Amino acid sequence: MDRYAVIGHPVEHSKSPLIHAAFARQTGQQIEYGKVQAPLDGFVATVAGLQAQGYCGANVTVPFKFEAYSLATELSERARDAGAVNTLSFKNGGIHGDNTDGVGLVRDILQNLEFSLAGKRVLLLGAGGAAEGVLGPLLQASPALLCIANRSVEKAKAMAARARPVDAELEACSFDALAGKAFDVVINATSSGLSNERLPLPSGLFAADALAYDMMYGRETPFMQYTREEGVQKIADGLGMLVEQAAEAFYVWRQIRPDTASVIAALRTS
Ligand code: NDP
Fold first, then answer.
1. Does the predicted TM-score (pTM) go above 0.90?
2. Tally of CB atoms within 10 A around 12
Protein backbone atom coordinates (compact mmCIF):
# COMPACT_ATOMS: atom_id res chain seq x y z
CA MET A 1 0.00 0.00 0.00
CA ASP A 2 1.51 3.39 -1.02
CA ARG A 3 1.48 5.80 1.90
CA TYR A 4 0.96 9.59 1.97
CA ALA A 5 0.18 12.11 4.71
CA VAL A 6 -0.56 15.78 5.34
CA ILE A 7 2.02 17.53 7.53
CA GLY A 8 1.00 20.62 9.48
CA HIS A 9 0.81 22.27 12.90
CA PRO A 10 -1.95 22.05 13.94
CA VAL A 11 -3.25 19.31 11.65
CA GLU A 12 -6.06 17.54 13.49
CA HIS A 13 -8.70 19.69 11.72
CA SER A 14 -7.45 18.65 8.25
CA LYS A 15 -10.00 17.16 5.85
CA SER A 16 -7.25 15.93 3.47
CA PRO A 17 -7.34 12.29 4.70
CA LEU A 18 -11.13 12.15 4.07
CA ILE A 19 -10.74 13.69 0.62
CA HIS A 20 -7.89 11.40 -0.48
CA ALA A 21 -9.71 8.34 0.88
CA ALA A 22 -12.72 9.32 -1.27
CA PHE A 23 -10.47 9.80 -4.34
CA ALA A 24 -8.80 6.39 -3.73
CA ARG A 25 -12.19 4.59 -3.40
CA GLN A 26 -13.49 6.31 -6.52
CA THR A 27 -10.44 5.48 -8.68
CA GLY A 28 -9.58 2.05 -7.20
CA GLN A 29 -6.13 3.22 -6.06
CA GLN A 30 -4.58 1.35 -3.13
CA ILE A 31 -3.28 4.19 -0.96
CA GLU A 32 -3.19 5.08 2.72
CA TYR A 33 -3.29 8.79 3.70
CA GLY A 34 -2.75 10.03 7.27
CA LYS A 35 -2.13 13.20 9.29
CA VAL A 36 1.23 14.05 10.84
CA GLN A 37 1.68 16.97 13.24
CA ALA A 38 5.30 18.14 12.97
CA PRO A 39 6.82 20.12 15.86
CA LEU A 40 7.15 23.80 14.85
CA ASP A 41 10.95 23.38 14.74
CA GLY A 42 10.83 19.83 13.37
CA PHE A 43 9.49 19.92 9.81
CA VAL A 44 12.72 18.71 8.15
CA ALA A 45 13.13 15.81 10.59
CA THR A 46 9.46 14.85 10.11
CA VAL A 47 9.86 14.68 6.33
CA ALA A 48 13.08 12.63 6.72
CA GLY A 49 11.18 10.25 9.02
CA LEU A 50 8.41 9.75 6.43
CA GLN A 51 10.99 9.12 3.69
CA ALA A 52 12.76 6.57 5.90
CA GLN A 53 9.43 4.79 6.46
CA GLY A 54 8.91 4.49 2.71
CA TYR A 55 6.15 7.11 2.26
CA CYS A 56 5.63 8.14 -1.38
CA GLY A 57 4.75 11.78 -0.72
CA ALA A 58 3.05 14.34 1.50
CA ASN A 59 0.90 17.43 1.43
CA VAL A 60 2.15 20.38 3.44
CA THR A 61 -0.06 22.89 5.21
CA VAL A 62 0.30 25.89 7.56
CA PRO A 63 2.97 26.86 8.63
CA PHE A 64 5.42 24.74 6.65
CA LYS A 65 4.86 25.64 2.96
CA PHE A 66 7.93 27.91 2.79
CA GLU A 67 10.14 25.35 4.57
CA ALA A 68 8.91 22.70 2.15
CA TYR A 69 9.96 24.98 -0.71
CA SER A 70 13.50 25.26 0.73
CA LEU A 71 13.70 21.53 1.43
CA ALA A 72 12.70 20.34 -2.05
CA THR A 73 15.61 19.15 -4.20
CA GLU A 74 13.58 19.76 -7.37
CA LEU A 75 10.70 22.21 -7.99
CA SER A 76 7.85 22.43 -10.49
CA GLU A 77 7.53 25.71 -12.36
CA ARG A 78 4.38 26.65 -10.44
CA ALA A 79 6.13 25.95 -7.09
CA ARG A 80 9.05 28.14 -8.18
CA ASP A 81 6.63 30.93 -9.14
CA ALA A 82 4.76 30.63 -5.84
CA GLY A 83 7.88 30.38 -3.65
CA ALA A 84 5.90 27.85 -1.59
CA VAL A 85 5.22 24.11 -1.78
CA ASN A 86 2.12 22.16 -0.70
CA THR A 87 2.83 18.81 -2.43
CA LEU A 88 5.95 16.70 -1.96
CA SER A 89 6.83 13.54 -3.93
CA PHE A 90 9.62 11.34 -2.63
CA LYS A 91 11.49 9.85 -5.59
CA ASN A 92 14.89 8.08 -5.74
CA GLY A 93 16.06 9.72 -2.52
CA GLY A 94 15.12 13.22 -3.77
CA ILE A 95 12.16 15.47 -2.90
CA HIS A 96 10.07 16.98 -5.71
CA GLY A 97 8.09 20.05 -4.61
CA ASP A 98 4.92 21.28 -6.31
CA ASN A 99 2.18 23.80 -5.55
CA THR A 100 -1.42 22.89 -6.39
CA ASP A 101 -3.20 25.68 -4.44
CA GLY A 102 -3.41 28.10 -7.35
CA VAL A 103 -4.69 25.63 -9.90
CA GLY A 104 -7.18 24.46 -7.23
CA LEU A 105 -8.57 27.97 -6.74
CA VAL A 106 -8.77 28.76 -10.45
CA ARG A 107 -10.47 25.42 -11.24
CA ASP A 108 -13.01 26.01 -8.48
CA ILE A 109 -13.85 29.47 -9.83
CA LEU A 110 -13.91 28.55 -13.54
CA GLN A 111 -15.38 25.04 -13.47
CA ASN A 112 -17.36 24.61 -10.25
CA LEU A 113 -18.64 28.18 -9.87
CA GLU A 114 -18.73 28.70 -13.66
CA PHE A 115 -17.38 32.23 -13.27
CA SER A 116 -14.98 33.53 -15.92
CA LEU A 117 -11.86 35.47 -14.90
CA ALA A 118 -10.88 36.57 -18.42
CA GLY A 119 -11.05 40.34 -18.82
CA LYS A 120 -12.25 40.80 -15.22
CA ARG A 121 -11.05 43.16 -12.50
CA VAL A 122 -9.76 40.91 -9.72
CA LEU A 123 -8.82 41.92 -6.17
CA LEU A 124 -6.64 39.56 -4.11
CA LEU A 125 -6.67 40.36 -0.39
CA GLY A 126 -3.55 39.16 1.47
CA ALA A 127 0.10 38.57 0.64
CA GLY A 128 0.88 35.46 2.68
CA GLY A 129 1.56 31.90 1.54
CA ALA A 130 -1.92 31.30 0.14
CA ALA A 131 -1.91 34.54 -1.88
CA GLU A 132 1.60 33.80 -3.22
CA GLY A 133 0.43 30.34 -4.29
CA VAL A 134 -2.55 31.57 -6.31
CA LEU A 135 -1.08 34.70 -7.94
CA GLY A 136 0.52 32.96 -10.96
CA PRO A 137 -2.50 30.80 -11.90
CA LEU A 138 -4.84 33.82 -11.42
CA LEU A 139 -2.72 35.89 -13.80
CA GLN A 140 -2.69 33.03 -16.32
CA ALA A 141 -6.52 33.19 -16.36
CA SER A 142 -6.14 36.55 -18.22
CA PRO A 143 -7.86 39.09 -15.96
CA ALA A 144 -7.83 42.71 -17.17
CA LEU A 145 -6.52 43.83 -13.78
CA LEU A 146 -5.19 42.08 -10.72
CA CYS A 147 -4.82 44.19 -7.61
CA ILE A 148 -3.12 42.79 -4.49
CA ALA A 149 -4.08 44.56 -1.24
CA ASN A 150 -2.47 43.73 2.06
CA ARG A 151 -2.29 45.11 5.61
CA SER A 152 1.53 45.25 5.23
CA VAL A 153 1.58 47.00 1.85
CA GLU A 154 5.30 46.37 1.24
CA LYS A 155 4.57 42.60 1.11
CA ALA A 156 1.92 43.16 -1.58
CA LYS A 157 4.34 45.33 -3.57
CA ALA A 158 7.12 42.72 -3.31
CA MET A 159 4.70 40.03 -4.50
CA ALA A 160 3.67 42.10 -7.52
CA ALA A 161 7.33 42.81 -8.32
CA ARG A 162 8.18 39.08 -8.29
CA ALA A 163 5.31 38.07 -10.61
CA ARG A 164 6.10 37.02 -14.17
CA PRO A 165 5.26 39.74 -16.71
CA VAL A 166 1.76 39.25 -18.14
CA ASP A 167 -0.75 41.19 -20.20
CA ALA A 168 -2.90 41.91 -17.15
CA GLU A 169 -2.43 45.16 -15.31
CA LEU A 170 -0.90 44.35 -11.90
CA GLU A 171 -1.23 46.69 -8.89
CA ALA A 172 -0.42 46.52 -5.20
CA CYS A 173 -1.91 48.73 -2.52
CA SER A 174 -3.09 49.14 1.07
CA PHE A 175 -6.70 48.49 2.15
CA ASP A 176 -7.17 52.28 2.51
CA ALA A 177 -6.29 52.80 -1.16
CA LEU A 178 -9.24 50.60 -2.23
CA ALA A 179 -11.79 53.37 -1.56
CA GLY A 180 -13.59 54.33 -4.78
CA LYS A 181 -12.48 51.19 -6.71
CA ALA A 182 -14.78 48.35 -7.80
CA PHE A 183 -13.95 44.74 -8.73
CA ASP A 184 -15.69 41.81 -10.44
CA VAL A 185 -13.95 39.23 -8.24
CA VAL A 186 -12.72 39.73 -4.67
CA ILE A 187 -10.73 36.87 -3.15
CA ASN A 188 -9.97 36.86 0.57
CA ALA A 189 -6.61 35.13 1.00
CA THR A 190 -5.92 36.65 4.42
CA SER A 191 -6.08 34.57 7.58
CA SER A 192 -8.31 37.21 9.27
CA GLY A 193 -11.18 34.68 9.34
CA LEU A 194 -9.17 32.41 11.62
CA SER A 195 -9.08 35.15 14.27
CA ASN A 196 -12.64 36.27 13.42
CA GLU A 197 -11.38 39.77 12.55
CA ARG A 198 -13.06 42.11 10.10
CA LEU A 199 -10.92 43.56 7.32
CA PRO A 200 -11.04 47.38 7.00
CA LEU A 201 -12.65 47.29 3.53
CA PRO A 202 -14.61 50.22 2.08
CA SER A 203 -18.21 50.06 0.93
CA GLY A 204 -18.85 49.84 -2.83
CA LEU A 205 -15.97 47.43 -3.58
CA PHE A 206 -18.11 45.07 -5.69
CA ALA A 207 -19.15 45.65 -9.30
CA ALA A 208 -22.57 44.34 -10.43
CA ASP A 209 -22.75 40.49 -10.48
CA ALA A 210 -19.40 40.24 -8.68
CA LEU A 211 -18.05 37.07 -7.09
CA ALA A 212 -16.80 37.16 -3.48
CA TYR A 213 -14.54 34.24 -2.61
CA ASP A 214 -13.20 33.45 0.87
CA MET A 215 -10.44 30.83 0.94
CA MET A 216 -11.57 29.84 4.42
CA TYR A 217 -14.25 27.18 4.75
CA GLY A 218 -16.33 25.55 7.42
CA ARG A 219 -17.95 28.66 8.86
CA GLU A 220 -19.30 32.11 8.10
CA THR A 221 -16.40 34.60 8.32
CA PRO A 222 -16.55 38.37 8.95
CA PHE A 223 -15.53 38.78 5.26
CA MET A 224 -18.60 36.81 4.18
CA GLN A 225 -20.81 38.89 6.49
CA TYR A 226 -19.35 42.04 4.91
CA THR A 227 -20.06 40.76 1.38
CA ARG A 228 -23.69 40.03 2.33
CA GLU A 229 -24.04 43.55 3.76
CA GLU A 230 -22.68 44.85 0.42
CA GLY A 231 -25.45 42.94 -1.41
CA VAL A 232 -23.19 40.43 -3.18
CA GLN A 233 -25.18 37.47 -4.55
CA LYS A 234 -22.35 35.12 -5.52
CA ILE A 235 -20.40 34.21 -2.39
CA ALA A 236 -18.16 31.14 -2.17
CA ASP A 237 -16.03 29.60 0.55
CA GLY A 238 -12.74 27.70 0.05
CA LEU A 239 -14.08 24.15 0.26
CA GLY A 240 -14.04 23.72 -3.52
CA MET A 241 -10.46 25.00 -3.66
CA LEU A 242 -9.46 22.56 -0.93
CA VAL A 243 -10.87 19.60 -2.88
CA GLU A 244 -9.46 20.83 -6.22
CA GLN A 245 -5.92 21.34 -4.84
CA ALA A 246 -6.14 17.83 -3.35
CA ALA A 247 -7.29 16.42 -6.71
CA GLU A 248 -4.30 18.03 -8.42
CA ALA A 249 -1.94 16.55 -5.78
CA PHE A 250 -3.60 13.14 -6.32
CA TYR A 251 -2.97 13.56 -10.05
CA VAL A 252 0.70 14.50 -9.41
CA TRP A 253 1.16 11.31 -7.37
CA ARG A 254 -1.10 8.81 -9.19
CA GLN A 255 -1.54 10.30 -12.72
CA ILE A 256 -5.31 9.83 -12.35
CA ARG A 257 -7.77 12.72 -12.11
CA PRO A 258 -10.56 12.02 -9.61
CA ASP A 259 -14.07 13.44 -9.89
CA THR A 260 -14.26 16.39 -7.49
CA ALA A 261 -17.95 17.40 -7.68
CA SER A 262 -19.18 14.33 -5.76
CA VAL A 263 -16.51 14.81 -3.07
CA ILE A 264 -17.35 18.53 -2.63
CA ALA A 265 -21.06 17.65 -2.38
CA ALA A 266 -20.39 14.91 0.21
CA LEU A 267 -18.24 17.24 2.34
CA ARG A 268 -20.90 19.95 2.22
CA THR A 269 -23.59 17.63 3.55
CA SER A 270 -21.37 15.97 6.19
P1 NDP B 1 -0.24 33.46 6.11
O2 NDP B 1 -0.04 33.47 7.59
O3 NDP B 1 0.91 33.10 5.23
O4 NDP B 1 -0.71 34.94 5.63
C5 NDP B 1 -1.68 35.64 6.34
C6 NDP B 1 -2.16 36.85 5.53
O7 NDP B 1 -3.33 37.37 6.17
C8 NDP B 1 -1.16 38.00 5.47
O9 NDP B 1 -1.33 38.66 4.23
C10 NDP B 1 -1.61 38.89 6.63
O11 NDP B 1 -1.27 40.25 6.48
C12 NDP B 1 -3.11 38.73 6.53
N13 NDP B 1 -3.82 38.99 7.80
C14 NDP B 1 -3.90 38.17 8.87
N15 NDP B 1 -4.70 38.70 9.81
C16 NDP B 1 -5.14 39.88 9.30
C17 NDP B 1 -6.00 40.90 9.80
N18 NDP B 1 -6.55 40.82 11.01
N19 NDP B 1 -6.24 41.97 9.03
C20 NDP B 1 -5.66 42.07 7.80
N21 NDP B 1 -4.85 41.15 7.27
C22 NDP B 1 -4.58 40.06 8.01
O23 NDP B 1 -1.52 32.52 5.86
P24 NDP B 1 -1.87 31.75 4.52
O25 NDP B 1 -1.64 32.66 3.39
O26 NDP B 1 -1.20 30.43 4.51
O27 NDP B 1 -3.44 31.44 4.70
C28 NDP B 1 -4.42 32.45 4.48
C29 NDP B 1 -5.81 31.85 4.54
O30 NDP B 1 -6.05 31.01 3.41
C31 NDP B 1 -6.07 30.96 5.76
O32 NDP B 1 -7.34 31.31 6.28
C33 NDP B 1 -6.08 29.56 5.22
O34 NDP B 1 -6.93 28.71 5.97
C35 NDP B 1 -6.63 29.77 3.82
N36 NDP B 1 -6.22 28.73 2.85
C37 NDP B 1 -7.20 27.96 2.25
C38 NDP B 1 -6.86 26.99 1.34
C39 NDP B 1 -7.94 26.17 0.71
O40 NDP B 1 -7.62 25.15 0.06
N41 NDP B 1 -9.19 26.56 0.81
C42 NDP B 1 -5.47 26.71 0.97
C43 NDP B 1 -4.52 27.60 1.62
C44 NDP B 1 -4.90 28.54 2.54
P45 NDP B 1 0.20 40.81 6.90
O46 NDP B 1 1.11 40.44 5.77
O47 NDP B 1 0.00 42.27 7.05
O48 NDP B 1 0.55 40.13 8.20
1. yes
2. 7
- Domains defined for the chain, CATH in brackets: 2-99+242-269 (3.40.50.10860), 102-237 (3.40.50.720)
Q: Give nearest CA residue, ligand 1 atom 11.
A: 151
Q: pLDDT tens across 152-207, in order?
A: 999 999 999 999 888 899 999 999 999 999 999 999 999 999 899 999 999 999 99
pLDDT single digits (tens) 228-243: 999 999 999 999 999 9
What stretches of 53-203 show up as alpha helix (H) in DSSP? Answer: 65-71, 77-82, 101-107, 129-140, 153-162
**Who lines ligand 1 at CB under 6 A?**
62, 101, 126-131, 150-152, 155, 189-195, 197, 199, 215-217, 238, 241-242, 245
Measured in whole angstroms, how far is the alpha carbon of residue 190 from the centre of its chain?
11
For residue 176, the SS3 value is: helix
